[in-house]
Structure formats: structure tokens, C-alpha cells
Fold this protein.
Amino acid sequence: MVVVKPFKGLRPPKSLVEQVASRPYDVLSSDEAKAEAGDNEKSLYHIIKPEIEFPNGFDEYDPQIYERAKENFEKFQNEHWLVQDDTENYYLYAQEMNGKTQYGIVLCTYVPDYMNGVIKKHELTRRDKEEDRMRHVRITNANVEPVFLAYRHNEVLDRLIRKYAAQPTQYDFIAPGDGFGHKFWVIGDEADKQAITAAFASMDALYIADGHHRSAAAALVGAEKAAAHADSTGHEEYNYFMAVCFPAEQLTILDYNRVVKDLNGMTEEQFVEALRTDFDVERVGTEIYKPARLHEFSLYAGGTWYKLTAKPGTFDPADPIGNLDVDISSRLILDKLLGITDLRSDKRIDFVGGLRGLGELKRRVDSGEMKMALALYPVTMEQIMKIADSGKIMPPKATWFEPKLRSGLVIHKLDEE
């Protein structure tokens, strides 16, 4: 049983939403955020990346940074750039990318559901990144940015999504930079709110798609607050954190590719020959080649593209982890041939989200910055859910979801206002 609730969203007025809304804190650097915010004092970056107001090189984990986040959050409310709704609502959020639209329900999900594994994860988190977001949640006393969750198909929710998507929007804009469309509706009807609550209660689980560190931070701070209040009933606002829940079948997962600085002492010819032990290798030529199916990879080195196909017996189709292309490539190429065993810390490897295209892989190799690029076929949402259901953890850098949630459309405060 999944526990969710509506909440009194803190939102920008319709006339200000495009000035307030931003990309998530973790998809761009401090310098990029500073450039994107420019002279816009209403940009949410002043709350989620307040280091943009400090000199270049200032430690983004300095206590002054978090204090500035709190000050700016209060300023946004005092200036009425963010205004809290009078009633508890659910919200509908639509994202449009390349002619495709996905619809998510914005809600508060239950901290104990995260702690007990009803909200399922598929990635490991780093404690330092958890602590960074925990400090942000503590000092703002809010979930300023949502978590990105998925759920298996539900006809009741599909019907309600269709109903509200046919109505006039609260927000409707094209985001600068990525050019993706964002639409937003308020779901305030009591019967519809009850139907949404009941529909989620009929589910066995929710799945974290993107935002594992935000999820962990929000849940851990909520649990801290509950432990600090001996009279906590379990229904206080801090027992919940904000998420956007999408039907799994609507989500788009792009390829998450690798670029490597050296070939571990091998020439390009030696490296390609070594690949033939575990892969069928086909020289494609100079034209960019994109993997067409599971267990197929494309390799770029020395101005040439190769198609690699994993040979039978190099992976276990029955193993939800071993069957992943990210695992196959990590075991048989990065580890076995190149000696890259820790994808999180090895400085010889970098990762490129699929939205940048395979041309970015070619550019980085041709520039001499990297020696080799490896493109993977995207992971599917069904694979992610099977892994989460099995209690296993995916290898790092396995998924890249697009479009990213726009931050600042709605915020969840952890007090009782």
C-alpha cells in the first residue's frame, strides 16, 4: 500500500513562473547556474544554488551558502514571488519533448514508505551528496525540488489525467535552453483528490526514476523531525516529501554513454582485437553508428565506428543485473580490458547523457581529450522496476531521464501553515 496526500503548494504567480522556474540543482555547475540566472533575481537558482551570489571558487558547502538559501527562500515569500495555496491540492504536471508528452501527478509521499522499501530505489547514494541536500532541507524547512517517481499503469489515474489535461492550464511555457514544454494544473476537487489517494493506496510500490539523493535527504530529514517530536502522530507535514509520479510507460530513458582517456597501454588495433574475445566486432566506418538493440554497442576510436555485439555466454539473461548492457560493458570492456573498476571515482572515464547525441562522443575523441567512446542501448523502465523489485542495485551511471523536472513550479513546506 502506497501512502500519498495532497498539500498546500507554495507556487509562483502565473505571471512570474517563467522567471522563477529553473533546471534541477544537480544538472548544471555553479558557473552554468550563475550564467543562466543572469540578472534575474527571481530565479530559483538563488535558493537551490545560492553559491551563484558568492565569488567564484567559494566553497559551495560553506555554512554561509545554506544560510543564504534560507534568506532567499524567505525573501521569495515576502516578495510574493512564491505564494502558498489556501487548500491542500494534488497537481498535474506535463512535460513535452520532441512531440511526446508525459503527465505526472505532483503529491506528497510518505517518509515511512521510503524507509520500509515501498518506495523502491535502484541506485546507491553517496553520503556527502545526501548530507548536502539534507542541510538544504533542514535550513529551508521545505522540499524545494521534487523527486521523480514512477508507477505501474493505473486506469483510475489515467482517467483523471485525461480529465485535467483537457482543462485550461495554470502554467504553460517553453523553457529556455532545452526548448521543452511545461504545463501545470491544480487538482482541487475533493472527489478527485480522494480518488487519487485511493488509487495510490491500491499499489504495492513506487519507483525512484531520478533523484535518489533528493529522496534520501527528504526522507532522512523527515525521519529526524519525527524522532525529535515525542508527540508525533505520523501525520505531520514533515512525515511527507514532495514527488512527481509518472506512469512508467510514458517515461523516456536515453542512453548514458562513456568516454575514456586512454586504452590502458594498448594501441587502437590491439584494443579492437582484444574486444573480439567477448564481442562480435564489425567495422562500420566514419559515419556515426547508434546501437539498435539490447546487447549491441557502438565504439568510436581512431576516427572509426565499430558495432559490438555481446557473444552468447558473456551474460546471464535470467539475471536482471547481469543482463544489463551497462553491466556487460563495465565487466568486459572497462574492467577487463581497461582496468577501470570504479566508475564513481576513476578519473580516466567520463559520462555523456544521450540528449547530447553521439556527435558529442565523436567530438571529444576527435579533440584528443578522450581516446575512446562507447555508446550503449538505453535501459528500459521495465528493467529498472524488475531490478528494484528484486532488491538489487544497478551499476552507476546507468540511466539518463529526459526531460528533467522543472524546479520551482511548486514547493512543499514542512510546517503546518
